[in-house]
């Protein structure tokens, strides 16, 4: 059976790994691809991977990847009939979605109205609450002054959290634990929200201590069907940047998974959602879950869901955007095994995770059974400081969690990337931490675990390969670690390849 492509030509309004990822599916579906690039990105893999490519401006995002007019002009010139925004940049910008539609081009994402409805966090809370979705106790309209905070804590007590109505991602957030802190915290939240979002409206919630962050992937078509594809556990994060995601979450049993999945579908339906989206939940220590916010885009960590379900989420997005009904019902979704993703970022763990730059001189990617790597760089790529430090995502699948972790550790031990500093060592420390191995962690885990000591050690011996430092640290700090799984996660030694290559280079052998 020959299936006609959903579109003729798709412009990918993004860069790096996600642009390459989207182009791969387009090619599989027989859809032509258009790349856009800034002056800093002329030779990037996403440009080389496309059928055609258009310059959209100078290096700064404001003048290139965020420039709606330049993107629409490239779309018109190339004759693209659809635009995929990826994540970040303009992916959750309702004005962009509307401008694309107005230009007679299909936006591969939700309707502008759904982006708007979920983009304002207070309206999102009110919207989903009406649909019977549990939300954290708090306000469903912005609060005007510090007096309203006082009134709220009189009724509900401390601690409370002030959040930006336009927000997301932790900007403009302030925890308040005592009456003395109220005035300052309100003023700070307001001013931070104002400068980050150009909108200083603040709302209030009861503060949950040490929550887990679990999100549910949904798909919705234009014919009213919504299904969920299970959860991703995203609690391993640092300053609101996720670094490891996995599925399933060790916290959930089948009943809770089904309940959260069903709740996520209701939340999506409540805003008239169409396309792929994610409902974020906070889960407290008594395993109560609460709607946090909706991400109205394809997410960085979507491959975790793809490896567990066997689906291609980008293909689903294209079909949905072309008006096709969902190809499966909820009861047709099958989950298998365990998937884990590590984000490889150009940043220096020894220097407080400051972004790093440089020309990549050598890469040995993640390989072997059960592994996938979605990368936006290759040997010769110049990593600049203009954009997000995410270079690549390494994703492992195994029939059990232990198996997936063992594969990930093995692949990251072999992993090599020279010319730019990355966070690979941090992944190895986490992946071998006894609390992580037991599944005993929350959103505060990484902050507590990355002891200052680690950075000192790494700074002192920066020329040591990162994996050696990590292995050594894991050995030093976590001597109570359980027996390694499958015999692959053991020891503080280099993987065979790396030590033999190092030895060969020392002795001058080829
Ligand atoms: C919270 C919370 C505790 N209680 N809300 C952080 C990002 C923003 N989107 C919402 N966030 C949180 N909201 C209440 N009522 C704790 C966080 C939070 C968090 C959430 C998800 C993932 C990581 C996090 C790290 C710190 C705090």
Helix content: 25-40%
Strand tally = 22
> Mean of residue pLDDT?
91
Strand content: 15-25%
Low-confidence stretches: 459-465, 474-493
In CATH terms, what is the fold-level topology of one domain? Answer: D-amino Acid Aminotransferase, Chain A, domain 1
CATH evolutionary superfamily of one domain = ATP-grasp fold, B domain
Helical segment tally? 18
CATH level-two architecture of one domain: 2-Layer Sandwich
Bound molecules: ligand MV4
Largest sheet: 8 strands, antiparallel
Instruction: Give the overall form.
Output: globular
Provide the spatial order of strands within the biggest beta sheet.
13-12-9-10-11-14-21-19
**Whole-number radius of gyration?**
23 Å
Query: What structural category characterises the helix and strand content?
Result: alpha+beta
N- and C-termini, Cα separation: 51 Å
CATH class of one domain: Alpha Beta
What labels would you give this structure?
single chain, 510 residues, alpha+beta, Rossmann fold, Dna Ligase, domain 1, D-amino Acid Aminotransferase, Chain A, domain 1, eight-stranded antiparallel beta sheet, 36% helix
């Amino acid at each position: 059976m020959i299936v006609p492509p959903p579109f003729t030509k798709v412009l990918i309004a993004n860069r790096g790994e996600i642009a390459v990822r989207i182009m791969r599916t387009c090619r599989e579906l027989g859809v032509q691809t258009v790349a856009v690039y800034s002056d800093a990105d002329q030779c990037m893999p996403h440009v080389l991977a496309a059928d055609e490519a258009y310059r959209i401006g100078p290096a700064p995002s404001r003048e290139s990847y965020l420039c709606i007019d330049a993107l629409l002009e490239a779309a018109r010139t190339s004759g693209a009939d659809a635009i995929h925004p990826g994540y970040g940049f303009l992916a959750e910008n309702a004005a962009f979605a509307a401008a694309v539609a107005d230009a007679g081009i299909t936006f591969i994402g939700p309707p502008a109205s759904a982006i708007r409805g979920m983009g304002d966090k207070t309206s999102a809370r009110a919207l989903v609450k009406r649909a019977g979705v549990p939300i954290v106790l708090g306000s469903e309209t912005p609060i005007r002054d510090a007096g309203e905070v006082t009134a709220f804590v009189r009724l509900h007590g401390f601690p409370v959290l002030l959040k930006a109505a336009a927000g997301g991602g932790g900007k403009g957030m302030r925890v308040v634990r005592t009456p003395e802190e109220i005035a300052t915290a309100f003023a700070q939240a307001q001013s931070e929200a104002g400068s980050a979002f150009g909108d200083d409206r603040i709302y209030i919630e009861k503060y949950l201590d040490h929550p887990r962050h679990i999100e549910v992937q949904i798909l919705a078509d234009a014919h009213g069907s919504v299904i969920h594809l299970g959860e991703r556990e995203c609690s391993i994060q640092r300053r609101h940047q996720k670094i490891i995601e996995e599925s399933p979450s060790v916290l959930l049993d089948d009943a809770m998974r089904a309940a959260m999945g069903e709740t996520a579908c209701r939340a999506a339906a409540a805003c008239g959602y169409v396309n792929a989206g994610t409902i974020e939940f906070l889960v407290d220590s008594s395993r109560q879950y609460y709607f946090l916010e909706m991400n109205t885009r394809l997410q960085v960590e979507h491959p975790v869901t793809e490896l567990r379900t066997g689906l291609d989420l980008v293909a689903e997005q294209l079909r949905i955007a072309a008006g096709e009904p969902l190809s499966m019902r909820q009861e047709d979704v099958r989950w298998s095994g365990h998937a884990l993703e590590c984000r490889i970022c150009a940043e220096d763990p020894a220097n407080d995770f400051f972004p790093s730059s440089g020309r990549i001189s050598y890469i040995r990617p993640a390989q072997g059974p059960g592994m996938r790597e979605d990368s936006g760089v290759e040997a010769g790529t110049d990593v600049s400081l203009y954009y997000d430090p995410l270079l690549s995502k390494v994703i492992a699948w195994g029939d059990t969690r232990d198996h997936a972790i063992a594969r990930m550790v093995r692949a990251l031990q072999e992993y090599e990337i020279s010319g730019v500093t990355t966070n690979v060592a941090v992944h190895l420390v986490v992946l071998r931490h006894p609390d992580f191995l037991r599944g005993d962690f929350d959103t505060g885990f990484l902050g507590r675990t990355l002891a200052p000591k680690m950075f000192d050690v790494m700074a002192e011996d920066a020329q040591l390969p990162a994996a050696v430092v990590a292995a050594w640290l894991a050995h030093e700090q976590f001597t109570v670690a359980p027996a390694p799984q499958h015999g692959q996660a053991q020891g503080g030694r280099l993987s065979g390849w790396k030590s033999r290559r190092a030895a060969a280079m020392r002795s001058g052998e080829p």
